Amino acid sequence: HRVSNLMEDFDAINIQSIPRAENKHADRLAAVGASFEVLEEIECNKVQPH
């Protein structure tokens, strides 16, 4: 839900699906990221569009 809420702040968003076989680096990064504990509260600065 957090991503959906953040997406509302942008005029346009482009999301592309890339098969894992074509993007091994991202697959490894996702595996590393999944191993971290997520805190309940995350401080996040909004990204300002250009």
What does this protein structure show overall?
The chain is built from 2 helices and no strands. The protein has helices at 2-7, 24-34. It has one domain (1-50). The chain is mainly alpha-helical. The protein starts with a helix and ends in a 16-residue tail after the last helix. The chain is flat.
User: How many distinct folded domains?
Assistant: 1
Query: In terms of per-residue confidence, which ranges show pLDDT below 50 for 5 or more consecutive residues?
Result: none
Describe the largest sheet. none
What's the total count of β strands?
0
Radius of gyration, rounded? 14 Å
Query: How would you sum up the global shape?
Result: flat
Could you state the order of secondary-structure elements as H and E?
Answer: HH
What is the average per-residue confidence, as pLDDT, rounded to a whole number?
Answer: 85
Distance from N terminus to C terminus (CA atoms, Å) equals: 24 Å
Structural class computed from helices and strand pairing? mainly alpha
Helix content: 25-40%
Task: Give the amount of beta strand, in percent.
Answer: under 5%
Number of helices: 2
